[in-house]
């Protein structure tokens, strides 16, 4: 008796195609017909599973958000020192920027040409609030006198590494950023 593998659902195939195409080429460049063809589904399947392209874009970005959070969690898991956790976030970034197919920040890419109230902009804000809160929480836990200032500087360094890794094709940018973050953390006064 042979082993049978279950074919992914139409929703899964649409999300997989959206993840590949949107990330590689852009959410505003890739049309519905191309997604349907790439996913190998009927047009009705798209509208059965999603209310339209915006809903599919939102699901694509939610998946990217979930994977990014999981990657950071993997890198901080088992660490007890909040300073080490802050530095581990840059290790998670290094893993991302050195992975095959790295094409920059999915949220920034998607929202670059989007309206301020678009699903792309909402997804980017959702991620940014979570990320900012994480940095602030860890900086507070570490006992910095100005945790918001420390978190803001780390976020700026992180964003610079994301941009440099993509624009300058500089995969070591995340490691340089980690060194800079370490300097910020060592210099910042603690209570």
Automatic annotation (TrEMBL):
Gene3D superfamilies in UniProt: Tetracycline Repressor, domain 2
Tell me the ranges covered by the HTH tetR-type domain, including all copies. Answer: 8-68
For this protein, the record's SUPFAM superfamilies field holds:
Homeodomain-like, Tetracyclin repressor-like, C-terminal domain
Q: Which residues bind DNA?
A: 31-50
Q: Name one Pfam family in it.
A: TetR_N
The scientific name of the source species is Nocardioides panacihumi
Q: Which UniProt keywords apply?
A: DNA-binding, Transcription, Transcription regulation
What PROSITE patterns does the record point to? HTH_TETR_2
Protein name from the UniProt record: TetR/AcrR family transcriptional regulator
Q: Write down the InterPro entries for this protein, in alphabetical order.
A: Homeodomain-like_sf, HTH_TetR, Tet_transcr_reg_TetR-rel_C_sf
Upper lineage is: Bacteria, Bacillati, Actinomycetota, Actinomycetes, Propionibacteriales
